[in-house]
Amino acid sequence: MPESRSLLGLPGETDLVTVDRAISEFRSGRPVLLRQDDRLAIALSAELADPDLVARLDALASGGAHLVLSAARLRRLGAKGREEAGIFALPSIDLERVETLALKIDGRMDAPIAPASALDEAALELARLSLVLPAVMLVYVTAEQIAAEPLIEVSTNAIGGYRAAQAATLKIVGRAPVPLEGASETEFVVFRGGEGLRDQVAIVVGKPDLSKAVPVRLHSACLTGDLFGSLKCDCGDQLRETVHWMAQNEGGILLYLDQEGRGNGISNKMRAYKLQSQGWDTYDADEVLGFDLDQRHFDFAATMLKQLGVAHVVALTNNPQKIGAIEAAGLEVAASQRVLGRPNAHNVRYLASKRDRAGHIIDMDALMARAAPTD
Q1: Residue 349 catalytic?
Q2: For the chain, which domains are there?
Q3: Catalytic residue from among 294, 299, 342, 349
Q4: Looking at the whole model, is its pTM more than 0.85?
């Protein structure tokens, strides 16, 4: 099929527009039509499924539907050591069964797991991009079956290439001086793109020398910690102390990235918090919901730095994954430096989990020395 030119976008942008629309539909609980070559499948979020819509989908499926789950969720269902997504056959779409397999804490496998296809993997990626739980009902269809349905159609290739394409289209759309407490010479630079339809922000503190290694922190947004001072994490401390340190040490750049809840979104973060309040570890809570240790991608962050003229970095982070992502994107990491928050009774287990399970470089003795004294 020849490449289309229309008012929707220039050549090369059509896939981005289509995936953007598919994300909006999927996040709203409406079905999306996935295509891989000549294969078609209707995908519907298990989390957002409307019973009437599911009944119509079940009639269309004629016993051929299945439920796609992530490897993390399958491990929680009892598939120990599982590293690949898989599917459960749905002879009929029983919403109670779907909810048990996809959502319930005490859910367990009730049938064999079959391997996931490329269409299944694309459906899970669409769910992640939509910031809903990675659990999708899929029904294979023919073009004739859905000829009269007003479905958004998107290819598996477009979904698979979406994140990289978004990073490639990043551009600065606004910048202005914004004096901060303890860092009066600060500029906010807003980029459009990177993750879905969200904007990203670079905070340039002082006048960093771009000919040298620039102190840089990649900071994922944390509404609860950054804004409200939550005691469950150290994010707010890391954010403010990094800015103050940069202001006192010849400047630097903090990238404030819209990646709430390690990339899972604020609603899923609150679900994980609820599980943590019941005794679950932060990473186990995410796994119950179907998420692996960290869903974040940092390729677009490196693109932001390059557009700001940065080639060499001193990475202010405890997370080796961020260092590796910066290097993989073609920037030199000349050094790294730890960023400590303040431990308290509510976050010490969380901090230890980041060290022990995600490999964060955290000296717990040095951290505990920063704890507020107790009477």
Answers
A1: no
A2: 14-160 (3.90.870.10), 166-259+296-368 (3.40.50.10990)
A3: 294
A4: yes
